């Protein structure tokens, strides 16, 4: 059985002129893909406790106040500093491992079904994400979809320079990228689809004829209800994070950060006191 958010209910469209645009975090994959990548990079000593504290502070502000452009820019700028001088191959290899061990287990079966339905209908399927393009392309390749629009970090001779080409793929930048892609590929946006969990993706969702909220945050759920957009909930028994579960997530995230910091400090202190006094 299909509802208004399913491509199978919309009839037959000319091949290749219809596309489905999917946000990634909490839409295709449970949680934040960049968080899982950052966690793997931390354990490989790409950055230290000071950066961990900074990211922890941003995370807490996000939980309390929601996502803002300033926060996105702060994360972007620091992330670019961390990978500057690192090889593209190195980051991609870490991404491959993170996908195989973590992200592949976090894909929402309901969203995967939608992806497959669009592909079976002959539609182009694009991931649109703030995640670095190398990681986004990896996810797209593993899912067997058409491609990915992501944040492009500049690199020369195989090494990241620490700068971004263009804008971070977030908010209005997503809609601009989708418009450019539609013009390049002859996509009929009025016949196309867009899926997201966040009101931040409203500019992209407003471009298409068939927007749909998947696992929406409170603001997008309210907006979708007001305008009559379909809402799909694929989180099962966990459902959307509200009240107590949001506080639990905050405490769990804080505990994880605190644990890493304490372990790091313990190692430093232990090393210091194993040397004799001079």
Strand order of the largest sheet: 4-3-2-1-5-6-7
The poorly predicted ranges are 1-5, 8-14, 240-262, 271-278
Order of helices and strands: EHHHHHEHEEHEHEHEH
Please state the average pLDDT score.
78
Oligomer: single chain
Number of strands: 7
Q: Name the helicity range.
A: 40-55%
Number of helices: 10
Q: Please summarize the sheet with the most strands.
A: 7 strands, mixed
Computed CA radius of gyration, to the nearest angstrom: 20 Å
Helix-strand makeup class? alpha/beta
What would the principal axes of the Cα set say about the shape? globular
In terms of DSSP E residues, the strand content is 5-15%
- Spatial separation of the terminal alpha carbons: 77 Å
Describe the 3D structure.
By secondary structure, this protein is an alpha/beta fold. Helices cover 50% and strands 15% of the residues. The chain is built from ten helices and seven strands. It has helices spanning 33-43, 49-65, 69-83, 88-101, 109-120, 133-143, 172-185, 202-205, 218-227, 243-273, and strands at 19-22, 124-132, 147-156, 159-165, 193-196, 210-214, 231-232. It has a seven-stranded mixed beta sheet with strand order 4-3-2-1-5-6-7. Strand 5 (193-196), helix 8 (202-205) and strand 6 form a beta-alpha-beta unit. Helix 2 packs antiparallel against helix 10 (243-273). It is globular and about 45 Å long.
């Amino acid at each position: 059985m299909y509802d208004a958010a399913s491509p199978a209910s919309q009839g037959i469209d000319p091949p290749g002129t219809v596309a489905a645009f999917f946000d990634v975090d909490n839409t295709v994959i449970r949680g934040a893909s960049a968080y899982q990548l950052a966690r793997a990079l931390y354990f490989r000593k790409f950055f230290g406790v000071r950066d961990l504290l900074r990211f922890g502070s941003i995370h807490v502000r996000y939980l309390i106040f929601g996502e803002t452009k300033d926060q996105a820019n702060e994360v972007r700028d620091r992330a670019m500093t961390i990978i500057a001088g690192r090889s593209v191959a190195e980051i991609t290899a870490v991404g491959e491992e993170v996908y195989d061990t973590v992200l592949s287990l976090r894909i929402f079966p309901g969203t995967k079904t939608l992806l497959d339905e669009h592909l079976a209908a002959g539609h182009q399927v694009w991931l649109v994400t703030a995640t670095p393009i190398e990681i986004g392309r990896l996810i797209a390749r593993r899912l067997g979809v058409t491609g990915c629009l992501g944040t492009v970090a500049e690199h020369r001779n195989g090494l990241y320079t620490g700068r971004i080409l263009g804008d971070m793929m977030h908010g209005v930048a997503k809609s601009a990228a989708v418009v450019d892609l539609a013009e390049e590929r002859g996509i009929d946006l009025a016949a196309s689809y867009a899926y997201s969990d966040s009101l931040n993706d409203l500019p992209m969702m407003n471009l298409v004829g068939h927007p749909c909220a998947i696992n929406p945050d409170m603001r997008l759920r309210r907006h979708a209800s007001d305008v009559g957009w379909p809402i799909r909930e694929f989180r099962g028994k966990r459902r959307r994070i509200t009240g107590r579960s949001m506080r639990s997530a905050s405490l769990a995230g804080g505990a994880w950060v605190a644990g890493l910091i304490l372990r790091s400090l313990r190692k430093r202190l232990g090393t210091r006191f194993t040397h004799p006094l001079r």
